[in-house]
Design brief:
Layout lengths: L2 E10 L7 H18 L6 E7 L2 E10 L5 E9 H4 L8 H10 L7 E5 L2 E10 L4 H14 L20 E8 L2 E2 L3 E2 L2 E4 L1 E3 L8 E3 L6 H7 L7 H18 L3 E2 L3 H8 L6 E6 L9 H12 L2 E4 L5 E9 L6 H26 L4 H4 L7 E3 L3 E2 H18 L4 H10 L7 H5 L6 H10 L3 H9 L14 H20 L13 H14 L7 H9 L10 H19 L4 H8 L6 H14 L5 H16 L18 H23 L2 H8 L3 H10 L7 H19 L10
Parallel strand pairs: 7-10
Antiparallel strand pairs: 1-3, 1-7, 2-3, 4-6, 5-6, 7-8, 9-10, 11-12, 13-15, 14-16, 15-16, 17-18
Helix pairs in contact: 1-4, 8-9, 11-12, 11-16, 12-15, 12-16, 14-15, 15-16, 16-17, 16-18, 16-19, 17-19, 18-19, 20-21, 21-24, 22-26, 23-24, 23-25, 23-26
Amino acid sequence: MSTQDFLVEIGTEELPPKSLLTLSNAFSKGIETALQEAGLSYEKATSFASPRRLALRLNGLQTHQADKSVEKKGPSKKAAFDAEGKPSRAMLGFTGSLGIQPDQLEELDTPKGTWMVYRSTEVGKASASLLNDIVALSLSKLPIPKRMRWGAQKVEFVRPLQWVLMILGGEVIEGSILNIPNGNTTRGHRFHSEGFIEITDANDYESKLLEQGKVIADYEKRKELIRSQVTEAATKIGGVAVIDEALLDEVNSLNEWPTALVGQFDERFLEVPTEALISSMKEHQKYFHVLDKNGAMLPNFITLCNIESKDPQQVISGNERVIRPRLADAAFFFETDKKISLDTRREQLKKIVFQQELGSVFDKTERVAILAGKINKAIGGNAVDAERAGRLAKSDLVTEMVLEFTDLQGTMGYYYAKHDGESETVANAINEQYKPKFSGDSLPSDSTSQALSIAEKLDSLVGLFGINQPPTGTKDPFALRRAALGVLRVIVEKQLSQLDLAELISWSTEQYDNLPNQNIAQDLISYMLERFRAWYEDENISAEVFLSVSARRPTRPVDFNQRINAVNAFLQLEQASALSAANKRVSNIISKQDKDLSQFKVNTDLLTEPAEIELSAQINELTKKVTPLFDQGNYQDALTELATLQHAVDAFFEDVMVMVDDEALKTNRLVLLSRLRELFLRVADISLLSK
């Protein structure tokens, strides 16, 4: 089948920089998915994205759909004809709907009788007739939270459309997109290029834009060029550029012809905390900062310019003029804030509502302080330090610096605490209270920081669950999912085995008065343990392993994690399948019994069959071996020992009848199986591993 190269480019006003890559990926994926559904294959897809364009090139696209055999089943042969052998109403209705005559039908023999069918060939459509609608459909499905209109038009898009390029094999695809007719021209750089650039071959698109339009259309190529330019610029001044990937993507999405320039600022601003300087340069000006070989900040910045200036110094001077007042503001805020201590600022927190039913931010700090003290004492830390950090933790929220740079909360608390004469431990805990902020983020470094981090998050969880406002499928305004996962990460990864969720929730609940939800502990423990599911999915641990452990509802996160790892390792053993199946069989048998088998002991005098005698002996021997392992939390070794029971268990079910008429004998055998199951239940419900 013949193929041709296809190119589509949607030209717009400047697209939102933080959304450009997402829009580009969605645009390309939408077209590729629609082509696959239409049965049109291609050899290679290449996406392009810049501030003023979304584009996709498909090399080797089929020019026509393949013909398709169609079979439509009508009435049965018996129902297709009346007593005189003439077409029945059912037959005529079927053929009429298809616009054919009855004699065009064929017979199809099936096990259920003979049916009338119509067979035909659906001729494939030309790709050129489908592509315009496919592109339009992809655009309509782009993840655009807020669309805009322009001019007198009623059409909507993320930004006004300026041109549409759409060619297949050099020929323009007939049609239009959002009232813009398709053509074979693109536009270059807004300032470095004039007029239209004609594209007659899809493979010339990138080179013509580069040479005639001064546009680097390939997103990744442009990104790596910026990276190398920034790195080289920093090297020239004896420094190292700190390249944040999110900032690099944003800068890349702002430039079509990037040029890196180095500026500088007054050294006196280096007296301001580095984080404040970085925030000012990065968030507001999109500058990269530079460090010296010792990791200290240099009084320089690197900016990206979207033009190749004949007088770059003018551009640099302009950027220096812009950043100077920003840094001056940061310096002023810092000096002003230091005049009032964090402790004194606590009074202002009474005016800030945390949540209407849960009181002010001041109230939250009181609760968190007590809870953090209890937690730090439990994990071997100093309760006084944790309480002090908890009471000061939110005071920086009312400082000028944090009001201006909200991402610096906690960070500025650290600097102000140090200025106030607080201990390094307390200051560091204030700084690390929000950790981990995101997946993969670092964790609080010492016990006081860990205690405050857990307390800060747990207080929100208990409070919101306590007033029956847990997160829903679409709403989580207090980021409780992240808080729950953060608590679990700190406890598990820092191996805080002393901490039990039930006890922690109880401690936190004590700090509240009359929360309406009487089932806080049950609801919140279930919610938090469920957060483990996604965690283990990311580690490629099967859902069955998670369910087998969660069925036992262990509430110590470290213990929960140890059980998961142990069961996952057990699952790799060759005995696992047989033992999990046996556990499932035992579970089914025991669940049907009315009596409480835990009240009985195995009567050795009633063990008559060799297989049950052997199983009982092995259970007795292994119980002595694995009980200390269970007590130590060494579940993996315990399960490895229990795996040796496989042959004895198999022999028991092969040779021994459990549900016999003799009631005493039956009960004794049920008790034996119950003891077997209880051994495994010390770790997890292994029966849930059986598929």
